[in-house]
Amino acid sequence: MGDPRRPHLVVFTGAGISAESGIQTFRASDGLWADHPVEEVATPQAWRRDPERVLRFYDQRRDQVRRARPNAAHKALAALEQQGFQVSIITQNIDDLHERAGSRHVLHLHGEILKARSSVDPRMHYPLPRGGIRLGDICDKGSQLRPDVVWFGEAVPHFADACEIAAQADLLLVVGTSLAVMPAASLLEHAPLDAPCVLVDPEADALTPPGVTGLGQPAGKGVPALVRHWTREGRLWLPETLLA
């Protein structure tokens, strides 16, 4: 991807990076699912049982995303790309905060909340610049539109693409994810053996797997700090003073 002479940073982001922009996470005790059991709003079975409830839930999420703004971590990654680094972002998040910050190479593993898609043809996508989805909104094949998100129990359609990107990394940066959601968490296994891997998360001490360097800071602090080092040196490296 891009010029092989430029350092290639592959970034894998999760809910923790968006939480700093005010978007609720799944797994916190006061998070998104506290009042919405997964089985009732985020599965194919829920869609068949009560599509109106599912649509209302995702309308609320969509409104939250539209109100949110990119934070310092999103902006730092976009700035690194502007400095001439290759930056490929693989995200579990369904918001568009990376794109709004200026990042140009973003792969959404779990879909995009600001798009609808056909219920019968997953290749048919429709942008939602405003408003939401209502019962009776149909695709060009006459099927009800649904949120363009991957529900629990559904395949992750872009996982193979994500593995190919991870395999090209000079350094893999993991931000704001517990590495608990499969198959996305297995992306680390596809990075080159000689590519360093850094996990930025306030709970890095508990979450960091073997062979990964942890930086126990929030995304909005840790990511800009790393980017400053890399920009100053013109290369991807692990600054011992920061990661000690």
UniProtKB/TrEMBL annotation:
Enzyme Commission designation: 2.3.1.286
Binding site for NAD(+): 14-33, 92-95, 176-178, 219
Gene3D superfamilies in alphabetical order: SIR2/SIRT2 'Small Domain (3.30.1600.10), TPP-binding domain (3.40.50.1220)
Active site: residue positions: H110
CDD domains: SIRT5_Af1_CobB (cd01412)
Keyword terms of this UniProt record: Cytoplasm, NAD, Transferase
Positions of substrate binding: Y58, R61
Catalyses which reaction(s): N(6)-acetyl-L-lysyl-[protein] + NAD(+) + H2O = 2''-O-acetyl-ADP-D-ribose + nicotinamide + L-lysyl-[protein]; N(6)-succinyl-L-lysyl-[protein] + NAD(+) + H2O = 2''-O-succinyl-ADP-D-ribose + nicotinamide + L-lysyl-[protein]
Location of this chain's protein in the cell: Cytoplasm
InterPro entries listed in its UniProt record: DHS-like_NAD/FAD-binding_dom, NAD-dep_sirtuin_deacylases, Sirtuin, Sirtuin_cat_small_dom_sf, Sirtuin_class_III, Ssirtuin_cat_dom
Coarse class of the protein's main subcellular location: cytoplasm
Top EC class, one word: transferase
Domain Deacetylase sirtuin-type: 1-233
Family, as annotated: Belongs to the sirtuin family. Class III subfamily.
Function of the protein: NAD-dependent lysine deacetylase and desuccinylase that specifically removes acetyl and succinyl groups on target proteins. Modulates the activities of several proteins which are inactive in their acylated form.
UniProt domain comment: 2 residues (Tyr-58 and Arg-61) present in a large hydrophobic pocket are probably involved in substrate specificity. They are important for desuccinylation activity, but dispensable for deacetylation activity.
PANTHER family in the cross-refs: NAD-DEPENDENT PROTEIN DEACYLASE, NAD-DEPENDENT PROTEIN DEACYLASE SIRTUIN-5, MITOCHONDRIAL-RELATED
Protein's recorded name: NAD-dependent protein deacylase
UniProt source species: Halomonas gemina
Biological classification of the source: Bacteria, Pseudomonadati, Pseudomonadota, Gammaproteobacteria, Oceanospirillales
Gene symbol of the encoding locus: cobB
